[in-house]
From TrEMBL:
UniProt lineage: Eukaryota, Viridiplantae, Streptophyta, Embryophyta, Tracheophyta
GO biological processes: mannose metabolic process
InterPro entries: Glyco_hydro/deAcase_b/a-brl, Glyco_hydro_38_N, Glyco_hydro_38_N_sf, Glycosyl_Hydrlase_38
Listed name of the protein: Putative glycoside hydrolase family 38, N-terminal domain-containing protein
Species annotation: Helianthus annuus
Keyword Hydrolase: yes
Length: 118
């Protein structure tokens, strides 16, 4: 599922922050989500961002990015690194999976970040 967050600041500038959210193991295994959706999304992100430097995207789930990185050819890996370096692609959170930000206790969020980024 592709989610678009929309925010309007006080100067009426409209911001679209594009991101993807897949919960590994929810309805499919990590491999099934990767094969059916996440690989295509990550390939498309890299291709699309390279076409227009004004575009930006954020990514959360390291489980899928790590899996994509194992399969990606060197040219795509290099392109992803360039997108990260120039700020078009941003890794947010950096956990193996996205934590439940809607109703998690702050301790659970911190615990996930500490264990998965250590």
């Amino acid at each position: 599922m592709l989610i678009v967050d929309i925010c309007i600041d006080l100067s009426t500038q409209l911001c679209f922050i594009f991101r993807a959210f897949y919960d590994p193991g929810w309805k499919l295994t990590i491999e099934e989500y990767y094969d059916r959706q996440s690989k295509h999304i990550l390939d498309t992100i890299v291709e699309t961002l390279l076409k227009d430097e004004r575009r930006k995207f954020i990514w959360e789930e390291m489980s899928y990015l790590e899996r994509w990185w194992r399969d990606a050819p060197d040219a795509k890996k290099e392109a992803l690194v360039r997108l990260l370096q120039n700020g078009q692609l941003e890794i947010v959170g950096g956990g193996w999976v996205m934590n439940d930000e809607a109703n998690s206790h702050y301790f659970a969020i911190i615990e996930q970040e500490v264990h998965l980024n250590a």
